[in-house]
Amino acid sequence: MIKIVVSKDGFSIDAEYRHLSSDLPSCGAVVTFTGLVREFSERTGVTGMRLEHYPGMTEKALGSICAQAADRWDVQRCTVIHRVGDLKTEEQIVFVGVASAHREDAFEACRFIMDYLKTEAPFWKKELTEDGEFWVEARDKDKKARECWGTPDSDSA
User: Fold this and answer.
1) What is the Cα gyration radius of the chain?
2) Domain 2-152 in this protein, CATH class
3) Contact 129, 45 (CB under 8 A)
């Protein structure tokens, strides 16, 4: 089961963990990642971030990324929540959770999903700083992390 949410609203890590692990007796591992808006990137004085997306296309791409993970590993449940709109530093921006029978599958699938989200998901990001707004491109280290998984399916781009 794949759950995809793109929203301006915040989310509860506890509620998402319960969703991933409840009524799933064969589940042996739940791995989650929560990303936050941070104050520092390549620029100093970051006060927040603005995220834009293309409704419908973005959810389809996120679903495709999760489906690719499920094809590679034993994924019993997968959740991706990505926020859009204006977010301040320290706010939650993304949640990825994977439930699996085994920890190795859960860890690898979660990492795979995050690596693809950073480089392949159709979000447009601006850092909001004291000096203005600046578009954010995928970083080289994120591209290299994604490359270790191979070529993405054409559905995820």
Assistant:
1) 16
2) alpha beta
3) yes
157: which 2 tokens? 């781009």
What's the pLDDT at 73? 96
- Of 19, 3, 9, nearest to 91 by C-alpha is 9
Alpha-carbon gap, residue 4 to 108, rounded angstroms: 19
Interatomic CA distance for residues 97 and 79, integer angstroms? 5
For residue 47, what are its two tokens?
């006060």
Q: What is the 3-state secondary structure (H, E, C) of 122-140?
A: CEEEEEEECCEEEEECCCH
What's the CA gap between 62 and 124, in Å, rounded? 14
Q: What's the rounded Cα separation, in Å, for the pair 73 and 94?
A: 21
Tell me the pLDDT band of 4, cut-offs 50, 70 and 90: very high
Q: Could you tell me the residue ranges of all domains in the chain?
A: 2-152
CA 96 – CA 2 distance, rounded (Å)? 11
pTM of the model: 0.85
HSE toward the beta carbon, residue 87, CA cutoff 13 A: 26
| Cα→Cα distances 48→35, 95, 99, 128, 134, Å | 13, 18, 31, 5, 11
